[in-house]
Amino acid sequence: MIAGDPGSGKSMLACDMAARVSTARLWPDGESCKLGEVWIFSDEDDKSRVIKPRLLAAGARREPHQMLNGAVGFDPGPEKFLQHLDRTPNCRLVILDPVYSYCGDLDLNKSGDGKKFMRMLAKIAADRHLAIVVLNHDRKAEASAVKRVMGSISLVGTMPSCLGSHPRAGGRNTQTVYADQEQPGR
Hints:
This protein is α/β, with parallel strands linked by helices. The chain has a single domain (2-180), classed as Rossmann fold (3-Layer(aba) Sandwich), CATH 3.40.50. Helices cover 33% and strands 23% of the residues. The protein is built from 6 helices and 7 strands. The chain has helices at residues 10-23, 47-57, 79-86, 111-128, 145-148, 153-158, and strands at 2-4, 37-42, 66-69, 91-97, 131-137, 161-167, 173-180.
């Protein structure tokens, strides 16, 4: 999960990830990246005016990137979502921007619904050997980092990791690890 206020760089960071997967470019820490296709489900940014230029600026392969504007709900089940993935067997990365647009009738402000949705995404990712990155907004009120993310705290607690993106002076953004299940206490 990447969470932050509008304009904090969440989508830019997701486009950088997509570009790396589409070209097998190394991750920033020097780890190798497996080449694959990318699905971007965006309910906020226009694919031709915003997403594609960002992908190209990040060094993405021109095609194929699967981009879908508009919501494809997951409730009562993920069938529509899986149909898109079935058309792309080499998919290695899925981006859902923002996560609330893709949860169907589930209420991500409720702990049970949040856990159910995130566990469903985790199962899809594990079964298909791909990564799913969800983008989320921060709450307007100040809170501790883990409580700053919109929705139930279970959204952060169920994810392997949660990264916060925040604007800072000088026009540059900073990323903060909100939660990392691989490295507790971080």
